[in-house]
Amino acid sequence: MKTVMKYLMGLVLSSTLVGGVFANELDGRTPYQGESFGQQSDANSATYTQAFVAPANSIIESIRWWGFHGLNSIGPSFDNFVVALDGVVQSGSLTVTSSSPYFNEYTLDIADAPLSASSLSILNNSSNVEWYWQSASALGNAAAPDASAVTFRLIGHTVSVVPEPTMFLLMLCGIATLALGRSRRPRAMVMSAE
Fold it and tell me: Which residues of 120-140 are buried (b: 16+ CB within 10 A; e: fewer)?
């Protein structure tokens, strides 16, 4: 019984203190899947910047985007991505996977940090790659490209400053369970000498 009580109390405390640390999408736009369609963002063009609105109290863990090489590219082996949030360059581990016949998916895992930025820029800083940042699906129409927006995902989690009502409920359940466990504890019998 003691082990169960300790486990339940630990569970209640940890869920109360941590309060929602699962990674999810903080902000982003779905890629247009129909064909290669996007904004050029390499050393032969101006840096393309995308604005976004991050939720309050958010922690960013990784940045994901989609893009493709043009016909005049000498290939992805010359890729040199410069990823910045509000102009501050982000470094980390880059993973590239082919997500469709038209473009690749890029994921930059970075050190967890508070997200207070409002713009994302991605530049493939090589004059030989002819790289395009894939367009997002048009708002309300996934079958059409949005020429003014590019696709990305900001992955992370939000931190609860004030515990949510469910956390209070969990705390109360934990306290009630502790109280119930104490009331069922066997009491030592006191023998009085007469």
Answer: bbbbbebebbbbbbbbbbbee
Q: What is the pLDDT of residues 74-100, one digit of tens each?
A: 989 999 999 999 999 999 999 999 888
What's the N-to-C CA distance of the chain in angstroms? Answer: 36
Query: What's the predicted TM-score (pTM) here?
Result: 0.72
Among candidate residues 115, 111, 81, the one with its CA nearest the CA of residue 96? 81
181: part of which helix (H) or strand (E)? helix 165-183
Q: Cα angle vertex 98, ends 66, 136, to 5°?
A: 25
Per-residue pLDDT tens digits for 5-33: 455 445 444 444 444 456 799 999 999 99
Burial of 182 (0-12, 13-18, 19+ CB in 10 A): exposed
Angstrom CA distances, 146 to 37, 39, 89, 153, 177, stand at: 9, 11, 26, 16, 54
Domain ranges across the chain: 23-161
Distance CA(30)–CA(83), nearest Å, equals 19
Q: Are 42 and 48 in contact (CB under 8 A)?
A: no
